[in-house]
Design brief:
The chain is of the alpha/beta class and 279 residues long. The protein folds into two domains: 104 residues, Rossmann fold (3-Layer(aba) Sandwich), CATH 3.40.50; 159 residues, Rossmann fold. 46% of the residues lie in helices and 13% in strands. The strands form two sheets. The chain has a four-stranded parallel beta sheet, with helices on both faces. The protein has a four-stranded parallel beta sheet with strand order 6-5-7-8, sandwiched between helices.
């Protein structure tokens, strides 16, 4: 609802209307005003337009003094109502979004959603993705175990079971992932046992496959391929230890031996989705 102004000013006004926040309309209004050196403009943003009544009230106010109305209404009903009402008014009306939507629809034959506020939803998705990536980096490889309780999912497994690549892949799906390496000589953090079982996923792999991966890793680092890191007996010891921890945790276990990152990630996303439904 627009508050009526008793004293009518002679200062030109640009009204920026929207059925969402109205930032785009106001930005266009301010960019336009900046092109004029003489005089001043008042810019009034009217957000969350949902009815024809609000449009009529704005037009009535604007007709009392030199005014222009620009709008980013995406609702077809509101745009058409605005056009009809404006035809009986002496106030110039600028439809910022309409022509662009129509032009894109014409060249693509796609149907626009015509839903207000979608750009801000996209912004929120972007920031959630950035937050998840930062989380994955902060809680990678067992760092900062006190933050495990804030994760959507915790991956556990021996070295080279794709914990970090999976964490980053899932982060781009807006999932907060921490991962904890399982090494026989290092006890898992106590915090891991305090997490609900459904939030922990164990990753296992075939002995020969892991030997191959670790051997290639050593070679890429310029190290001897027969180091203990790639020794079959050592790998079997690590895997048995990891499985014993997973049994204690009673967590779901995924064998990543012959799975692409995307396939494993989809399995984990199913678990995350199920967890969210049960909250």
């Amino acid at each position: 609802m627009i508050r009526e102004v008793i004293i009518i000013s002679t200062t030109p006004i640009i009204y920026a209307l929207s059925d969402s926040i109205g930032e785009t309309a106001e930005m266009v209004a301010r960019a336009t005003a900046s092109q004029y050196d003489s005089g001043e403009f008042d810019i009034i943003r009217v957000s969350y337009i949902t009815s024809v009544t609000q449009i009529a009230e704005t037009l009535e106010m604007a007709s009392r003094q030199p005014s222009v109305i620009c709008h980013t209404l995406v609702s077809q009903e509101l745009r058409e109502a605005f056009k009809e009402l404006a035809a009986n008014s002496n106030v110039p009306i600028i439809d910022i979004m309409g022509p662009m939507i129509q032009a894109v629809q014409k060249i693509t034959s796609l149907t626009p959603k015509l839903k207000p506020g979608l750009v801000h939803q996209l912004d929120q998705d972007y920031f959630r993705r950035v937050e998840a990536v930062e989380f994955a980096v902060k809680y990678d490889d067992g760092k900062n175990p006190w933050g495990l309780k804030n994760a959507d999912i915790i991956l556990v497994g021996v070295s080279r079971t794709s914990k970090t690549p999976l964490s980053m892949y899932l982060a781009h799906k807006k999932v907060k992932v921490a991962n904890v390496p399982l090494v026989p000589e290092v006890a898992p953090p106590q915090e891991l046992y305090d997490i609900p079982t459904s939030k922990v996923v164990g990753l296992v792999i075939n002995t020969d496959k892991l030997n191959q991966i670790r051997t290639e890793r050593l070679r890429s680092m310029g190290l001897a391929s027969d180091a203990n890191y790639a020794n079959i007996a050592r790998i079997e010891e690590e895997l048995e230890y990891a499985k014993s921890i997973m049994r204690k945790l009673r967590c779901p276990v995924i064998d990543v031996s012959n799975k692409a990152i995307e396939e494993t990630a989809n399995r984990i996303l199913e678990i995350v989705h199920k967890n969210r439904q049960q909250r």
